[in-house]
Input
Amino acid sequence: MKAAPRAYRNAARTAPALPPPPAGEGGEGAGLAHARVASPSLSLQPKSDLSDFGQSIVPKSGKPDFGCKRGRGRKSRNALLCFWLVAFSSPACAETVEDFFRNKQITMLVASGVGGGYDTYARAFARHASKHIPGQPGLVPKNLPAAGGLAAANTLYSVSARDGLTIAALTNGIAMDPLFGNPGARFDAQKFGWIGSIGKLQNVCATWHASPVKTIAAAREREVIVAAAGATSNTVIVPRVLNTLIGTRFKPIIGYDPGTGLNMAIESGEAEGICGLSWSTLKASRPDWIRNAKLNVIVQMALEKLPELGDVPSALDLVAGPENRKVLELILARQEMGRPLAAPPDVPADRLAALRAAFDATLKDAEFLAEAQRLQMEIEPLDAAAIETLLSKAYGAPRDIIARAAALVEPQAKKE
Output
């Protein structure tokens, strides 16, 4: 249909309003009909294009008119605007957690190299956790091992989007690094969205079966050469702590590869043993050593003793004096959240809750537990609330205890 002549349209715009219908004639319906005829903006006249409608929204003044000013169509446009505002702000229209995660991919930063203990735990978790997250998003590990795991923690805190699509499998001591003054730790550990920890890390000190040092008492009497990785690794920190607090004489030789290098140094006789390696890592990486009694485990480093090492003394039982014990307990707290998972700060509460629930469900998943047993993984979960309590207690420790612990864990850190 052709557009009405311009003269007709102009005349329609200037036509006087019709008088209201007499009372009682036509009722409400008649009044509505009258309003439709009287308002050119609601004219039923067919249009061949949208030019006139555009003119009613953007008049000659150049400023959009949504019916907020006095003029034609104000009430009808206001009503329409209110309808859309109410509709799209309604909780019923809000995006659910399942809607958000559906058809998306979650990146899991892994704060260690491929093939190590942390990587093994993280990838096993990733293979089973997706089905427990609403919407079942993909869960893809991405290794970021630089700076002893700090690169992953710093990235998660400062770079990753805070939407729930990035999480990280961090190393055990990372949450305590800011407390102990590590200058590379550029994050507030208590602001992470902690998800949970798959297991604890109970470190041990052990000598090779051919070594004459078979007890911790013997390690107090003579120097014991132990293989060590980097200067900031547990294989250096633990000997330093024990030498200071219980009087052992461990001498770390630094520079071995943290995987096969340490093992080869012991087997070849370059070192008498190792101090500060996780018992679960030892069992998983060299089960033959355990099975064939190739190691003398002489002390264990944990807040609670391992039942399977019941005859091996705990460092906590050997330390003298209540202050020294508090220092050691603070250092050992690093191992309680041995294999932690975290999200960035400020992830929406409902999405973080979904990730935490998925963690809890995965750690009870029969298929995950079967794989963990096959890989000889130690599953000792710690939920998010327990991690937050642990960190709150650690960061609230007396300043002198923190200072003494920091001097052993981060001796090169700049002190205030």
Notes: Residues 76 and 244 are 81 Å apart (CA to CA). The radius of gyration is 34 Å. The first strand starts at residue 105 and ends at 110. The chain has 18 helices and eleven strands.
